Amino acid sequence: MLRDTWLVFSRVMLPVLRNPVAVVFGIAQPLLYLGLFGPLLGDTGWQWFVPGLLVQMALFGTAYAGFSLLPEVRTGVMERLRVTPVSRIALLIGRVGKDVVLLVVQSLLIMLAAMLFGFRATAGQMLLGLGLVALLGIAIGSMSYAIALKVKLEYVFASVLSASIVPLMLLSGVLLPMSNGPQWLYWLSRLNPLAHVVDAERSIFNPGTVTYGLVSVAVLVLVGVFYGVRTFNKESA
Amino acid sequence: MIEARGLARRFDTKTGPVDAVRGVDIDVAEGELVGFLGPNGAGKSTTLRMLTTLLQPTAGEATIAGHDLLKDPAGVRRNIGYVGQKPGAGQDQRVADELDFQARFYGLSKHDARKKVAGLLERFDLVGLEKRAVVTLSGGQQRRLDIAMGVLHDPRLLFLDEPSTALDPQSRRNLWDHIRQLKADGTTVFLTTHYLDEADYLSDRLLVIDHGAIVGEGSPDDLKHQVSGDLVVLGTPQAQVVATKFENAVVDGEVVSFRIPNGDRALPSLLKDLDHIGVELHSVQVHRPTLDDVFLTMTGRSLREDSNAA
Which phi-psi region, left, alpha or beta, contains residue A138 (left: φ > 0; alpha: ψ -120 to 50)? Predict the structure, then answer.
């Protein structure tokens, strides 16, 4: 299983390593947020804003991962792999692994860039922060692959994504504190597991509790991986 | 090598259940090259997907390469090779990498995989393309890469789904040579096709499927013999007269056609008899039955694409 996962991981990682430019382009968007939105929050805003930005990267970086699967489903690649004895779980986890590794690298780059603006973090905080981002990436990436496998068509997958990601992001308090809004909006955000993950990520770099966020992310990982594995195990997938 | 009993697959669609395969029995002995012939939509690919563990049957059972299809799909997978209809190599991957990973998915060590891949590149005429991205390969090259990935672990049983679709005549011929070589090396081959010449040229034995059920079985020659006789076509102004002498003769203007057994040998005396009764002939043709005639006799419809479209 571990060997299979490593092989699947290496197979999808290799083209990225051969053409690492894509990884750099991947951080263009968070860099723009950092440079063009971050300063609006004032000098003291960085400690609050950067952790949220990292969670947003995890969301956007892995939610779209399913798109990379669709050409392989449409051609015979997935089919060819599924006739080999390779573990079905490895076919999912190996791919998610690639996305999470890239996410962690990009998040680290963003944190370092943020330090130029005035973000402050110890090595330990950065490690914890990246760990939480990675867990969220595993959860969302697994779900993304499973949903892509289910809907099979790019344009359907794209609408499923935009219909789910935008409300998740708006209700997570990534850009502005949810407590600024009316009571009903705040309570709605409390129903969003991502909001708790954002709170936890902020608590790593500021005083506060990470408990709810950890519980949220643990549940997300369990649900995401379970759903992903089940979908990849299914015969018609 | 293949022993399937009552294999069936039903798909639930929005317009109700569709029985794509309605309980087929398939027996293939070790070393055989069996062609699975049928028009598009007859259930060929669905059957193949069931036999290769890609699709769960809704009924029936099978033993493939000594392993139970339902209870030990992993055992089946280790012992079979499969080349699907669609290209199986990742477009953004390099040729040698895809082969290498494929070898390692079958459990080969890094070192063994490298040796194996070198041999395969040679055998399938892919030397020099190792570092090329799959997307830049021609159709024939991609197909050879697909086959190389399918036979890489020396499977005892190889499944090929429409192997020559969309290939130019030369690549097709080349592919056929590879398939025959595999058989010569002792591999059991099970291939689907809707091309009659392919089925005729490659197969020891044919299974004919239509509407999800096996409607005929035998060697290409056996099946052709089932069509009663050769088609004789005579051009004569006295077509009507000739027509009265043969059963089921068809007259079309000055052309009369009918079937007789062993037409090539029966023809000389037949022509002499016609001459005796004063029939004047200006053309004579004898057609051996084709697999299309076989298919027409068995199912009442033609296998050819153009007649499907008509």
Answer: alpha
What is the Cα–Cα distance from B144 to A143, expressed in whole angstroms? Answer: 35
Contact B211, B43 (CB under 8 A): yes
Identify the CA nearest to A10 among candidates B121, B100, B109: B100
pLDDT in tens, B139-174: 889 989 999 999 999 999 999 998 887 778 888 888
Q: DSSP 3-state assignment of A55? A: helix
Check: CB of residue A74 under 8 Å from CB of residue A148: no
Q: Are B75 and B67 in contact (CB under 8 A)?
A: yes
Question: Which tens digits make up the pLDDT trace of A77-91?
Answer: 999 999 999 999 999
**Interface predicted TM-score of the whole assembly (ipTM), two decimals:** 0.85
pLDDT the model gives residue A140: 95
Cα distance between residue B59 and residue B77, in whole Å: 20
One-letter amino acid of A217: V
Q: Hey, what amino acid is at B233? A: V
B204 in reach of chain A (CB within 8 A): no
Cβ-defined contact of B77 to A10 (cutoff 8 Å) = no
At residue B307 the predicted structure's pLDDT band, cuts being 50, 70 and 90, is: very low
Q: Which residues of A are less than 8 Å from B93 in CB distance? A: 11, 14-15
Contact A38, B51 (CB under 8 A): no
Choose among B70, B292, B102, B83: nearest CA to B189.
B83
**Stronger pLDDT, B147 or B297, i.e. the higher one:** B147
Query: What's the CATH code, domain B2-224?
Result: 3.40.50.300
The strand pair at B205-210 and B33-37 is best described as parallel
Query: What would the pLDDT profile of A103-161 be if each residue is shown by its tens digit?
Result: 999 999 999 999 998 898 899 999 999 999 999 999 999 999 999 999 989 999 999 99
Q: Which two tokens stand for residue B290?
A: 């084709």
* Rounded Cα distance, A87 and B1, in Å: 24
Q: Tell me what pLDDT residue B166 has.
A: 74
Hey, of B56, B105, B109, B146, which one would you mutate to test binding to chain A, going by the most A CBs within 10 A of its CB? Answer: B105
Query: Would you state the structure tokens that stand for residue B261, as one six-digit string?
Result: 């057994």
Determine the straight-line distance between the first and last CA of chain A, rounded to whole angstroms: 20
Assess B26–A contact: CB distance below 8 Å, yes or no: no
- Cβ distance A11 to B78 less than 8 Å, yes or no, reads no
- CB–CB of A160/A154 below 8 Å? no
Predicted local distance difference test score (pLDDT) of residue B310: 32
Class (C level, CATH) for B228-288: alpha beta
Alpha carbons B71 and B51: distance in angstroms, whole number: 13
